[in-house]
Amino acid sequence: MEISTIEIVNSSKEKPMIVINNFIYHKNQDRKNGNIYCRCQYCSSKYQCPASVTTEGLNTQIVCFSIKQHVDYPFKEDIDIKVLNKEDKMRKRSRSEQIPIRQIYRSEMYNLIVETQDIENIPKLPKEKNEIDLTNPRFTSKSYSKPFLLFDTNDKDRITAFASDIQLEILAKSARWHIDGKFKSCPNLYKQLYIIHARLNEEMFAFNFLKEVCFKKRPNIATKNYNERL
Ligand SMILES: [Zn+2]
After folding, report:
1. What is the ipTM of this complex?
2. DSSP E strand stretches across 138-191
């Protein structure tokens, strides 16, 4: 395989992964000679990808690739790898810096936007609510295949809701919901972040994020909007 990019990136669980030409490999086994055998991240998913790579250690020194190639699955783009790097940086900064996590998140997101502004198919950061474009599958699905956007009213009092099928299933099975509206942690352009927590099997799941643009804090409007959501 011709290598154009190779780097070590941490997973969301802070396990190092080797990223070669935007293919992600997880460590699978330590060999007796010190080499590390890594398998494609999709090895045990529905794709059953057989591709693997062996490295000299937890580094980018390649010993060999498997003969078997990657199967056909949604290809990771440059921005996907950049997002992984940014997430890792945010986790590290939130542990070492004495500033609010929200501030760290915003500064890293700003850096990401600057770094990716020339990448095709990535919409520019919206300045008005009507510029929020949810037609790109990147923003409406999980892993490009599982739907995540529940609905988007795209009107004057815009309400946008996100939930995966599994989250909806948990919500349907749960006998108790806790509903909370937040203003401070809401993304710009929206006025409120609205979260439903569901209790199931002694565990609390947080999901169903609704964000609305034109929420007004007048009681009659608030009641109307709360009812609309429910
Ligand atoms: Zn693969």
Report:
1. 0.98
2. 141-142, 146-147, 149-152, 159-162, 176-182
